[in-house]
Amino acid sequence: MIAALVQTGQARFEYRHYLGHFGSEAAASAMECAADQRDSAFWQVHDELMVRPGTVRDESRLTAFAAEIGLDTEQFISCIDDRIHIDRIRAEHNAARAAGVRLTPTIFVNESSAGITLGSITRAVEAATP
Fold first, then answer.
1. Cis before 53 (ω within 30)
2. For a pLDDT cut of 70, what percent of the chain falls above it?
3. Strand, helix or coil at 83?
4. Which one of 62, 66, 89, 93 is CB 3.0 to 4.6 Å from 71, fit for a cystine?
5. Nearest 5 degrees, angle CA 32-CA 38-CA 44?
């Protein structure tokens, strides 16, 4: 989807947090706190937590991963502990619920659900493009 639609300039990708499982609030905080130090770190933490979801509940593993990708670990853990991003994360979750999101991934094109296959998303983007 990214290569076919976003990198070609046909669509823009925006990520919104949805707190759909145990640990998702902590995961969202870790991703945002990583991004505070480097935008690309958001996706590095996201991907790590998708592969090893237990990492978010183990501060030593999370800290080790943050160090591995070059983050200032004290700043990172302090950001998480201080819940710096929690109000925005919860607001994104509440907005998603209000829009009808009940599971992830949910993909919208111009505020309409577009399905989750490349074909359905492509059709939605094409239909929305003048």
1. no
2. 100
3. coil
4. 66
5. 70
Distance CA 21, CA 80 (A): 18
- DSSP, collapsed to helix, strand or coil, labels residue 113 as strand
Smallest Cα–Cα separation from 104: which of 15, 1, 10, 11?
A: 15
Residue 2 vs residues 24, 26, 78, 104, 129: alpha-carbon distances, Å: 23, 26, 32, 17, 17
Task: Copy the structure tokens of residue 72.
Answer: 């200032």
Predicted TM-score (pTM) of this structure: 0.87
Residues 44-101: tens digit of each pLDDT: 999 999 999 888 889 999 999 999 999 999 999 999 999 999 999 999 999 999 999 9
What residues form DSSP beta bridges with 109?
112
The single-letter code of the amino acid at 50 is M
For the chain, what is the radius of gyration of the CA atoms?
16
Contact 71, 38 (CB under 8 A): yes
Angle, CA of 81, 70 and 30, to the nearest 5°: 30
> How many CB atoms sit inside 10 A of residue 36's CB?
16
